[in-house]
Write a structure and sequence with these properties.
Hedgehog/Intein (Hint) domain-containing protein, Hint_dom_sf, mainly beta, 5-stranded antiparallel sheet, 7-stranded antiparallel sheet, globular, Hedgehog/Intein_dom, Jelly Rolls
């Protein structure tokens, strides 16, 4: 599995051999316009505009003997309409992600397996805590020519400035909880710090309270390094770091101290790293088109020590109680009876404004 196409404000990329592979590697999809991609995933990450009338976010159309139409529209009230018309096949889905709560950024993933006559449509919030999943039966394969045209500027293509990126994979992409630490991130263990890439199921790690807990699972996934997956650079010695590290924007840090207790009335709080960006402590990271993340699943979502800072381990909530969501996730191949039930987060999660105020006070 690999990513083969990416389009955002910084550029447009179509690489049949894979975005993260050498240009001379063998292509993973056909090179002719009428070759078919029978299995894959289209991901669109976008801001959801406030609108009083339907507004097009993505639109692509081609006529001919086998016409193709793809459009994503925002409609009043916070809804979305996805239309995929191809030959005699029509997919028309009206989504109301506003039922998931207030949304700033959402990610839509359309996956298809034409030989299996199976498809799935998923919508996620940017913090990945809320997920909407719907079936998309009997999908058609996509023509390579249409894929290329969708990811390259042209007269048949429109992409709204609200769209952060579009990406295409040649496999079924998982949705739901995602890893958020780079493989070289040092994690505290009873024998000292070890890169998370060297840890495996059955190993033990030290929590922030210096307790020893087992690693139930380690998950790994490669994502396009854009939008809510574009890594951020955390600088030492801020947040107790002993060295600089890079994380996904949604990685949560656990912050404690007298200021936290005074400002928020709790001994410790959690905040996504993205809320801390913009100052001297968290900067944009240099990266390629894709990035590999890893994370540890622990029994009670215990916070771990990552290069000295307190970081939350993988939080899966009550995923084991939601069969459809579990099947769509990176943990879908595991026995749900062996997965923990994390319930609610142990730490209050700060809003962006509160997190920035706290970060500014600490830097000052």
């Amino acid at each position: 599995m690999t990513w083969i196409a990416l389009s955002d404000a910084d550029g447009h990329h179509f690489a049949p051999q894979g975005l993260d592979r050498h240009p001379e590697d063998l292509p993973l999809i056909g090179s002719r316009e009428d070759d078919l991609l029978t299995r894959g995933s289209l991901v669109i990450e976008t801001r959801l505009p406030t609108t009083s009338r339907p507004r097009s976010l993505v639109h692509y159309e081609r006529g001919g003997d086998w016409p193709f139409h793809l459009s994503l529209q925002a409609i009043p009230g916070g809804g979305l309409i996805l239309i995929l018309f191809q030959g005699d096949s029509v997919l028309h889905k009206a989504l109301n992600p506003s039922e998931m709560g207030r949304l700033d950024v959402l990610r839509l993933t359309y996956s298809w397996d034409a030989p299996a006559r199976w498809g799935r449509l998923a919508v996620e919030q940017n913090d990945q805590d809320t997920l909407f999943v719907a079936n998309a039966p009997r999908p058609c394969p996509l023509r390579v020519g249409d894929i290329r045209a969708l990811f390259e500027p042209g007269e048949h293509r429109f992409v709204s400035p609200d769209v952060i990126y579009m990406a295409l994979s040649n496999d079924i992409e998982p949705v739901g909880p995602m890893p958020s630490l780079l493989p070289n991130t040092p994690i505290a263990t009873p024998d000292g710090y070890r890169p998370i890439s060297k840890l495996k199921r059955g190993d033990v790690v030290l929590t922030a309270d210096r307790e020893i807990v087992p690693v139930l699972h380690k998950i790994t996934h490669t994502m396009v390094a854009r939008g809510t997956a574009k890594p951020l650079h955390l600088r030492a010695p801020y947040f107790g770091l002993q060295q600089d590290i890079q994380t996904a924007p949604d990685q949560r840090l656990v912050l404690a101290g007298s200021e936290v207790e005074y400002m928020f009335g709790h001994e410790a709080v959690a905040t996504p790293v993205r809320h801390l960006a913009g100052g001297a402590s968290v900067l944009p990271a240099k990266c390629g088109l894709t990035v590999m993340y890893q994370q540890l699943l622990l029994p009670e979502n215990e916070p771990i020590l990552a290069a000295g800072t307190v970081a939350q381990s993988l939080y899966i909530g009550r995923l084991r109680r939601k069969p459809d969501h579990l099947a769509a996730s990176l943990l879908g191949q595991l026995d749900r009876h062996g997965l923990p039930d994390h319930g609610r987060s142990k730490f209050p999660v700060l809003r962006a404004f509160d997190a920035r105020i706290l970060a500014e006070r600490r830097v000052a």
